[in-house]
Structures are given as C-alpha cells and as structure tokens.
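Design a sequence for this backbone.
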C-alpha cells in the first residue's frame, strides 16, 4: 500500500444469520436479515469499487465477524481486507483512520454498508472534504 494518496474504507460485517441486522430479525427473520445485509454490502462494494477505479482511490475493506479467509471467499481478492480493531464503532473507526494516515494517506473516508443510495458523487464530495480537513490541519 505504498504511495497511497487517497483511500476509501468500507466497514462491513460478515453476514451471519442471527448476528447481522439483528433489529430486523423480528420482521425478516434471521436468514432474511442476513440476506439483506449481504445485498447491501455487495451493492455498496460495487459502487465503491467503480468509484475507486475511476478516481485512482484505494479501496480497503475492514470487516467484523468471522475471519479474513471467509471475507475473501465471499468478496474476492481484489482489495485489502483487514479486521476492524476492537472496541465500539467510534474506536474501530479511529483505529482505521490512524492506520490509514500512518500508511501515508492524507485523505481517507470510511463508509458503512447500509447506504443503498450511495453514489460516486457522494463519495467524491466526501474525499474533497477529507482533503480540506487535512489541509486545514496541516497549515494551521
């Protein structure tokens, strides 16, 4: 991951019935909730991948649940796939940002998988804001 300038990190959970989208289980059942989660992750990943290819942005997947082999079997080998850090969501995001910055990325955006209306335009705007924040802090 040398020479990384911009990075998009997708936070995703391996879709296990009974452990994903648990608030939707009463309405969809455990299998239905996991199936919905699977579709949301794949849809978000397609959008993110297309954007990253068109904008020379590195895509990384940070996963929770199961292990890297299972995630790679499900999502493929096309991008780095790393486990999320321990802790609550804020701690896991902070750790992902810190690692990305430590690896040389001045512009990093984290997205979740529950964004069915996500567009390339939204991702582009987020990266512009991330660069603005970086520049503001760098030249204070």
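Sequence:
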């Amino acid at each position: 991951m040398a020479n990384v300038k911009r990075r998009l990190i997708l936070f995703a959970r391996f879709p296990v019935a009974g452990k994903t989208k648990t608030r939707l289980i009463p309405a969809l059942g455990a299998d239905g909730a996991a199936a919905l989660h699977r579709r949301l992750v794949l849809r978000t990943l397609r959008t993110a991948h297309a954007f990253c290819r068109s904008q020379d942005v590195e895509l990384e997947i940070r996963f929770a649940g199961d292990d890297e082999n299972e995630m790679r079997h499900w999502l493929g080998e096309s991008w780095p796939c790393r486990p999320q850090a321990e802790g609550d969501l804020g701690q896991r995001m902070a750790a992902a940002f810190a690692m990305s910055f430590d690896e040389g990325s001045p512009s990093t955006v984290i997205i979740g998988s529950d964004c069915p209306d996500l567009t390339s335009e939204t991702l582009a705007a987020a990266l512009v804001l991330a660069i603005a924040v970086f520049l503001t802090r760098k030249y204070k």
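The chain has four helices and four strands.
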